[in-house]
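pinging the channel bc i need a second pair of eyes. not urgent but kinda urgent?? the chain im working w is below, pasted from the shared doc
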Amino acid sequence: MKEEERILCLDHYEHGIVVHALNALRNDLIGEKRPTDAVDDLLLKTIDAPYQKHKRRSHHEAR
């Protein structure tokens, strides 16, 4: 069975918050000597997430 994907749209500021929060969680796990594999994978996915261009209407299109 295929896994469902979720798409989360974040602006630049929100993306920074998520990256910093995941990094803080990773640092806490390292301090507790617990595995960080899942957080590492999610952090890399978040950092490398592609941008989505917004489609804008041309001023010639009918409204």
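so The chain has a mean pLDDT of 89. and The CA atoms of residues 14 and 30 lie 24 Å apart. — does that match what u expected or am i reading it wrong
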